[in-house]
Amino acid sequence: MRSSIQFLLTLLAVVALALLLRYIEQETGQFIVRLVALAGIWIVASASLNLVNGTLGILSLGHSGFMLLGGYVVTILMTPHVAKLRVIQAPIGLGLVSPWVLDVNLNWLTTNQHLQFIICLALGGVVAAAVGFLVGAPAFRLRGDYLAIVTFAFGEIIRIVLEALSRISNGPLGYSGIPTLAKGLWWTWGTAGITIFVIAQLCKSSFGRALKAIREDETAAESMGINLFRHKILALVISAFFAGVAGGLYASWLAAITPGTYTFSLTFLFLVAIGFGGLGSITGAVLGALVITFLPELLRSLEGQQVIFGQTVQIFGLRQVILSLILVLTMIFYRRGLMGYSEFHWEWFTSRQFKALFLGRRAQVLRSEELAQDAWLRRSEQAPEPKQEA
Amino acid sequence: MTLAQFLQQTINGLSLGSLYALLAIGYSMVYGILRLINFAHGEIFMLGAFFAFYTFTFTGLPWWVAMLVSMVLTAGAGLLLERLAYRPLRDSPRTTVLITAIAISFLLQNAGQMIFGAQPKPFAPPSLLLKPLQFELAGNRIFLRWTGVLVPIITLALLYLLTLLVQRTRIGKAMRAVAQDTEVARMMGINVNFVVAITFVVGSALAAAGGVMWGMTFRNIQPLMGIFPGIKAFIAAVVGGIGSLPGAMLGGYLLGLAEVWLVALLSLFQSNAFTLTTYRDVLVFAILILILLFRPHGIIGEGTAEKV
Amino acid sequence: MNRLILAVAALGLVLGSVSLSQGGPILIGAPFELTGDQAAFGTIELDAVRFANELRPTVLGRSVEIVAVDTASSASESSNVTQRLIDQGVVALVGWCCSRGAIPAAEVAQAAGVVSISVTSTNPQTTLVGEGDPRGSFSFRVDFIDPQQGGAGADFVFNTLGGRRVLVVRQIGDAYSFGLTEFFTNRFIQLGGEVNIQDVNEGQTDFSAQVAALQAFNPDVVYSSAFPPQSGPFIRQARDGGYTGPFAGGDAILSQQTVDLAGADAILTAEGTANVFATSPVGAADVGSPEAQAFLQAWQARFGDNPDPFETLGFDAYNVVIQAIENIGPAFNERSLAEQRVAIRDALLATENFPGASGSITFVDTDGTPRNRVLGVFRMDLDAEGKLVSGGLGTLVATAGG
């Protein structure tokens, strides 16, 4: 397919999506709008986590810490003076927060809230990226599995320290009354669009190819002249930047922030997203983000009242169990998630698989070919083991 | 701090460290053989405590029988986990396996809350073990309970049995071989799947023993109880040198002692004006990171010690 | 692709099923933390709300239906599910044990003009989210954020127990524990005492390190602002570590769970009197009121044990809303859903001396947090079976404030 046609198709798809968002905003209930807005935020978070965990292939577990930083930047700079004041003067406001925090804002620059929000999101991203650099600098001196625990440790450290800095963060009480700009679909989906575009361009560039080379074989990549440390840390910094942006959006969407909101379970949510959608695929991350937003709400009907042996009972917890189970099963049967490494492409619609799917035929031939290729790419120690041994 | 206080805290730390060591060994064994961080190990530990709790509650068997029953049941759970979740992923990318392990951990936590209930449950050890054990030292009183003595003894006994298993038996030899080189071991006719299964069985049984003793020492259990000990024991395994048995033991005891000493030390410098103990976990993590930076393979590094 | 279309259609069906307000039962939304790290409190509070609903299933001739949903201890799920319940047509929301979910939900409910009553969220901001809104605030709570409690606790520890060195157990990241500790320590230091704060984690079961610190600090009294799942084992392990002095704490520890997790022998001294004390606004002036007695008897008949403070408050949260609806009168049934919601808010704000199981509740001239009552200090005395006497309260030993 020619690239000009593809460009046209992409443009059309974007316009169609914009129309759909407009329709949702005007024609559906508040609940759907909230959910769709949240989906946009989760896309930003999942796509950014995917850059390190999928494209680079290093398990980073400190995402919630970066998001918390972005959230607090938006909170401190955007929350109106009145709302901050009530946080401090509340019946047990405790007077924890230093008075100077009241006067920190962006009003000296511009009074336009939307402009302020853009600046705050970017600033939140920069702060998160800077901390990401501080995390990565020591962490990437290590190889392999230790990174998982070190990034996890940093995620916890960020949260505990911020909570202890109650002069700024108001301790575990946090803030409320943050302007809720991120309830708007244009904000979250606009940011999601920019994130996807930037990360997709990065992945296509030589930088992205270098990341994939590192993922497949670090030693080989290094011998090809790729500077491992520089590439890894840059990937983490970019990932942390977008995590900060997502955290800022999330704080605004919730209208409130406490450090306890940004725990490891938040990171786990995005692990589910990219694990399900595809480790190393932006399309997969988007798909996964949609799943983690809508599936829990769809599964709620399972937790409604049910009559068992004449008794009305309501069993809670099934949703969480099913969500974890879905991730486990996806990992077992798809290994790299539904999408694997592949990205959405217009040529899908002219591909054999697509036709096979819609003509009802199986596309097994191609899959086994792919598998064989994959096996080639892997190191020998990871090759499928022989059927039977003594 | 007086000498007696220091001794008292050392005893507390050794008791806690024993439990970390039991858990850390499970992480280390699995890592040594499969190069897999079994993030669900903390939940296996939780299952062990609950199996013992229900055995104890429903049958009224003596505690040590309940502990053995729980070790068998938990070993079965570990086996099932390996067979259903990890074996199909044996040759898949590292990230995939790690994410699966994290997912299993969440699955067991949530299933635990659904089945056992979210409320913490009191876990009653036999009253004999609760008898206080006091003695004087240089005019100061040292205080501990029989559980505090029994836990390190049982732990060391189990670790001794494990060492025998690894050093003296055929299967132990096979485990060491697989840990050294899976491919070569397979070519030599070792049934790798069987060895891995045994590893999970042994690791899970030890975690169950840890869970039961944890319940007896701290007197309560709940479905999320595996999270903190799980993380700490993993840190212990990494600090000691993951993949190494003596490393895991060393790491467990070091972490137990460090944690107790650290809080006691921080408390000494606390005053009305400021609280330092908030930073306890930060310091533990910072120590972990520093150790890894200067000794990337832990205190007893890879290659210098045998791996299982 | 077909499956995708099906899924979208199913989503539309599920989400589109908004029930009507006038005909059927009155819907009360009950979003609680039923899974995740806060489930220990959310589940028992929901049980109490359900129990209250069993005892009082109708109002104004219509049945009341509890729509219970799980927030998974997550802020975003709490926020989503609140909006969903509002879209489903609930007239009011009763739920939330903790501030993490309660505040974002209160923001959503405020925007929609629906009353949200949190059972035990202690963060002051929960009832302040509507400040400045011309329609007035829609957020309430039935628990107390009483700064008196910490102060009264400090006075009691200093004057009655004679404590000068106090080890304070605080739960990291928890608004209740944080606030209580802050007020306790401020007052206690002002009185001339010395404190040493030990932070513990939610879900922590081993307190070896903290007990070591306790042994080193050698306090006269231990004050715990943490919840029973931490306080109970802490008391146990402190006793196991040789500490024989008294414990004190806020209303959260005044619970059978604390006793069960600590063990009766840790609560009592060798002579058999209790050595654990708790301040509580719950029931201080109302011990033995007919409402409290009726609730206690019904609860014991149904569950065979004493209610926990969390359960008592869950029970009251439901009843205060139902009473508000009843106070509106038959005109309630004639109104539109939006008017009903505002009417409930207005009726709640007019609530004065509602006789709850936890004592009287007054919302008149408040921001949605009940007005202070007389505090009591209770000694956690146990009967022969290890149950707290006086239906779970222990023995009143002192009163403070008013």
Describe the protein.
The complex is a heterotrimer of chains A (390), B (308) and C (402). With 390 residues, chain A is mostly helical. Chain A has 16 helices and four strands. Chain A is globular and about 65 Å long. Chain B is mainly α. Chain B has a single domain, classed as ABC transporter involved in vitamin B12 uptake, BtuC (Orthogonal Bundle), CATH 1.10.3470. Chain B contains twelve helices and four strands. Chain B has a two-stranded antiparallel ribbon with strand order 1-4. In chain B, strands 2-3 form a two-stranded antiparallel ribbon. The longest helix of chain B is centred in the first third of the chain and has 32 residues, at 3-34. Chain C folds into two domains: 2-145 and 291-361, Rossmann fold (3-Layer(aba) Sandwich); 147-280 and 375-400, Response regulator (Rossmann fold). In chain C, strand 12 (354-356) and strand 13 form a beta hairpin. At the A-C interface, helix 2, helix 4, strand 1, helix 11 and helix 13 of A face helix 1, strand 3, helix 3, helix 4 and helix 6 of C.
